[in-house]
Specification:
The chain is mostly helical. The chain has 2 helices and no strands. Helix 1 packs antiparallel against helix 2. The longest helix is centred in the last third of the chain and has 29 residues, at about 45-75.
Length: about 80
Amino acid sequence: MIGKFAAWLLIAAGVFNVVIWPRFFKAIVDDDRAWGGAEKWQDPQGFFWVHLVLIVTAMTLGIIVLVIGIRALRGQ
């Protein structure tokens, strides 16, 4: 059983991840190191792929944590 404080902490952590990581993705897309071509979305480099995996993983875990927090809070 997860306590009320822990449930709110999980919700806050989940919301934080859902809000922050999309902004980080925009910064990666705007970074010249992400692209090998002259334009965006042409020839993505390793820099882009590594950060994309990081962002997807963090977002997935953030959503999971958010759902666990919401379910724990509803279960009380």
